[in-house]
Amino acid sequence: MKELKGFAKVFLEAGEEKEIRIKLDRQATSFWDEIQNSWVSESGTYGVHVGESSQNIVLTGKFVVEATTTWRGL
Question: Which residues of the chain have pLDDT under 50?
């Protein structure tokens, strides 16, 4: 399953390069668990795909969430 967790709209001139940073915090890996009545961020390895669109991926990577956490509220 893929979900959009961040984006930046960038305009570049021909040959121009820019560094773009998109922060992925615990909300990016979280879901609402109705049984626990709390937010859950599960441990595991998460894939990251960067592209011009979901059909044109130009870079992939991954990051690891070491421990499962839960919390209530934002």
Answer: none
- Single-letter amino acid, residue 73: G
**How many independent structural domains does the chain possess?**
1
Q: For residues 22 and 31, what is the distance between their CA atoms, to the nearest angstrom?
A: 20
Cβ neighbourhood burial of 30 (10 Å; 0-12, 13-18, 19+): middle
Residue 11 falls inside a structural domain: no
The span from the CA of 8 to the CA of 20, in Å, is: 8
